[in-house]
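Risk mitigation, structural track. In case the binding assays with K7E fail to produce interpretable data, a predicted complex structure has been prepared as a fallback.
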Amino acid sequence: MKRMLPIVAAAAVLAWLAAQAPGCATSGGGARAAAQKVYVPPGEHDAYYGFISGGHHGNVYVYGFPSCRHITTIPVFTPEPAVGYGYDEDSKAMLGGRTWGDAHHPGLSETDGNYDGRWLFINDMVSARIARIDLKDFKTRQIYGPIPNLSAAHACPFPTPNTEYVFAASRFSVPVPNRPARVEDYGKDFRGIIAGIKVDPADGTMSMGFEVLMPPFAWDLADAGKGPSHGYTFFTCYNSEGAFDSLEIKASQAEMDYIAVVDWRAAQKAVDAGQADMIGGAPVLDPAKVKGVVWLFPVPKSPHGVDVDPSGKYVCASGKLQAEVSVYSFEKIAAAIAAKKHESEIQGVPVLAYEDVFEAKVPVGLGPLHTQFDDKGYAYTSLFLDSQIAKWKVGPPWDVVDKIDVYYSIGHLMASEGDTRNPTGEYVVALDKLSKDRYLNVGPTHPEAAQLIDLRGPRMELLYDFPTYLEPHYAQMIRAEKLKPFTVYPLEQSKHPHAIKRAEDARIERKGNRVDVYLLAVRTHFSPDIVRVNEGDDVYFHVTNLEQDDDIAHGFGILWSNCNMQIEPGETKTMHWKAEKAGIIPFYCSNFCSALHQEMQGFIEVNPRGTVLAAVERAEEKVAP
Ligand code: K7E
Ligand code: CUA
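Fallback model:
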């Protein structure tokens, strides 16, 4: 620079400034150009669905991209009174009495390593559960777990390329089986678990596949291999030091922690061959006794994310306390496994040598956490400490080609179809932990922040900022055309045991203290709209919405109670209500459905105990003109 003529230096500065301009969406023409790229005209739809985890809110937020509009929230591990999730009998049973979850990682189902739009899985870390959301109706249809022996399912669910399995691993090791123990006996009595949960290819039903006993490290994140690495799943860990107190110091001592490589086909085979011990109802493989299922290899400095590139050739790990992403070659891993080349063994798990599997180090910057990919051979790594995303070349010379600032302290990032064999390379969304000054002040708890970034040009370009509610971790983005959700539930296909399909079937049945009300909801009345019961009765309202028109949902709310639910067109739901005290209790449609929505109401007449009522009462007996 010193020998440069001043004018050349000035030109260089100007050129540099010009190069920065596309990244600066906050001024003048740049802002206008960016606004056009997120603008979805009224009446038109977004190109992508984004599924963003709700963290300790226990649900999933659905956004449209590129508009960044919040479209809906899917309740998963947390009750949602507006729609009656956790209030009607089926969803209440599914939640099993739990009312919160900590949802970190949405995992879209895949076929051939590409999102297929059938299901979305998501973990509840705290109770080691996995939920399946059906993308035909955006409803949670199964909650599997608590998974036995496993404590804190954080590395979860990360589906395999044909959704053969979803996985879970212990973030906090505990005794296996859990029993009274001294924390000081951590190294001796505590164990981690990696669980492979089978997914039924026809309907997505999850069931226990296998468990593998692991050293008591903090198993952190995972990713499934694809292409050449299909059949293997990779798990990072921290605290290979085995600390059980003051982790911030004691778990950051060692230069290296590990990635575990699980051959899930071999694990299932070993279980099917009877080589597992049943512990807590799960078949558990002990690597000290069963070989050829799991290996470790060293990774620097308390890694967090592990991400397999679209080709399936490279495994990329982010050392939180390192300024680099470490890349490993699957070809080398497979060769070391085949050659049985181990440098040591930890609790029966063979350890491959770092030099035998290592491929490259990419100097991305400070605090790397997670990596996503595009369609042009580039990777994007979130940098928590630098509040940046680094773009780098997957393959020699493994260099960083671009960086962009984000606001602030990014955790995960979501690229369009970024976990598949064919990312679309259009967008990445930064999921930031702190928003600080980006939005109107709403008191000490600020919203989280997210940023939409365009990947289509030579440099990353910030397009838009949007707040999110507590607290996204990971998210996935899928092309909208892959999803074809129902607009109504076809009445003739209803398999609900208490569905009614004709108005004349609406009725009340009484048997002892149990009353079953087969209630019809249709614009703009309930039938029957007078329900007579006795004090002390257990009343089950089976409400069918007989509508077949788009977007005509009815509500069913009972006064002075916690009972409310929403019934969508063609749907039947059951709600239990206890007739505590004689008197009159109104009920009403709680979801605005039509001009006469206010009139959509009824009365429960609670009679004194022992009042004689007909065993069956048909609604039309009263309503008939
Ligand atoms: Cu990085 Cu739970 Cu995937 Cu938060 S995790 S960021
Ligand atoms: Cu039905 Cu409001």
